[in-house]
Amino acid sequence: MDNEYDISIEEGVAAPLDEERICSCCDLILREEGVSRPCLVSISLVSDERIRTLNDAWRDVDRATDVISLECERPDDPSLAPNEPCELGDIVLAPAFIARQAREYGTTVEDEFRLLLTHGLLHLLGYDHLVDDEAEQMEAREEELLALMPCDAPITGVILTRHREDAAE
What we know:
- This protein is α/β, with parallel strands linked by helices.
- The chain has a single domain, classed as Metalloproteases ("zincins"), catalytic domain (Collagenase (Catalytic Domain)), CATH 3.40.390.
- It is 46% helix and 15% strand.
């Protein structure tokens, strides 16, 4: 499976992982999720100011956040021809926000970035956390996937409380 990733990094923003490791994480997630169709994913690393603007425009929440996912197509869409690439959507990450969050949650910046990249891609694949049952399923899947990635430390006990708080607004 040949997935394509359009990775853009806003000027002045430092990427916690290089492009090869970002693509490798995404390939692992898509493979483990059983996606056999080639996928196209846009991944943008932006400033806190830019993600705040997007969060306000798309979610009506006027503050910065760690990750936003904007879904386009699903790999199982019956309107896609066999082997036609699926345009999954966009994942927007704010590395400076993620770095602050890593300190708060006791992870490395790189591991927190892996978690949020995983979180964003799972959203594009249809996972959500608006209700407790869905959140528990998504958290469990994130833990399973992160256990397969080369992380700085084992990432266990993934808790999406920061995202549940966002959903409550």
